[in-house]
Amino acid sequence: MAEAGTAAPPKGERLLVVGPSWVGDMVMAQSLLMTLKARHPGCRIGVVAPAWSRPILERMAEVDEVACLETGHGEFGWRARRTLASRLRGRFDRAIVLPRSWKSALVPFLAGIPQRTGFTGEQRYGLLNDRRRLDKAVLDQTVKRFVALGLPAAEAESGTFAIPRPRLAVDADNLGALRSTLGLSSRPAIGMMPGAEYGPAKQWPLAHFRELAGRLTAEGFEVRVLGGPKDEAAGETISAGQAHVLNLCGRTRLADAVDLLADCRQVVTNDSGLMHVAAAVGTRVQAIYGSSSPRYTPPLTDNAEIHYLGLSCSPCFARTCPLGHTHCLVQLPPARLLGAVLGTTETVIARG
Fold it and tell me: Per the count of CB atoms within 10 A, which of 29, 89, 109, 306 is most buried?
């Protein structure tokens, strides 16, 4: 995989995708990339993306080039966008802009890419010249919206097109090294992802995670709590004083998380970016939904079970519970998740 501006691309249509800014959305964007490769044989795909996402994009066979945009989350970054655009000028035939913000369409416009496709929004009339109307009733999932932008407008508007499922490559050598450096045991592993970048209204109570972890280790599993540096305290709450529960939050890179999740028998997770990573490496997912909707952002796999109470106040899509009680999550008991995990485990695990 090349960096932007390092080599002349081969013949074939040259497509630039401006990617999203969240882990889960970047994984779902692979469905678009797979569609483009299938529809345009021989095409070359570049992706404009935050630098943090490079490890995820490197695990996608469809990505030929990553153009890292060095700006902070929510930062306008005019100079960085202008600099990147100058490096991309003359190198792409078409751009697809996934985010709906005004600033996300700047790089393709400044780079002079002839065709620039995206949904109408934030007065982007001068920046996009192939503007699509977003019918939220038809394109009722994030992944559908991404894929639709890679299709002819008439086909996209039908909402009946195929959605390829993301599939991230796994690095067996890296996993082997992680087993040693992290002190992983020979027990079958269950992953737990207690974080959700969007906010606490998507997070199952830590006390529930902790109780479930203890009951799983009693059944013979190793529990791996995964997340970023922001999740370290949550991981400690779950793991403290519990044998065979490892707090790996903040101790691994994003690429490491891909391989560790592929090594897990199952994962218990909030609706988060790592949930989508787990689905994309083929691990069985026990997905917990609170303020968000499993209809809008489901794990893109058949190997998943959804845990969603569907209360009258759900989904509210709020960062914090507007009612102050988060019943949609609190009332999902650990026993339900334990039963789901044990009920779908193919191998009988001896206690101890």
Answer: 29
Alpha-carbon distance of 315 to 330, in angstroms, equals 15
Residues facing 17 on adjacent strands = 47, 96
Distance between CA atoms of residues 219 and 350, nearest Å: 7
Q: What is the pLDDT of residue 3?
A: 57
3 state DSSP class of 45? strand
Q: Are 174 and 252 in contact (CB under 8 A)?
A: no
Q: How many CA atoms lie within 13 A of 228 on its CB side?
A: 11
Q: Measured between alpha carbons, how far is 316 from 290 in angstroms, rounded to an integer?
A: 9
d(CA 351, CA 221): 9
DSSP H or E segment with residue 118:
strand 115-119
Q: What is the pLDDT of residue 11?
A: 64
* Nearest by Cα to 29 from 300, 325, 232, 285: 300
Contacts of residue 343, defined as CB under 8 A and 6 or more positions apart, other chains included, come to: none
Q: What is the pLDDT at residue 247?
A: 98
Q: Are 94 and 113 in contact (CB under 8 A)?
A: yes
Mean pLDDT across 261-277: 97
On the 0-12 / 13-18 / 19+ scale of CB atoms within 10 A, 190 is buried
**Within 10 Å of residue 39's Cβ, how many Cβ atoms?**
12
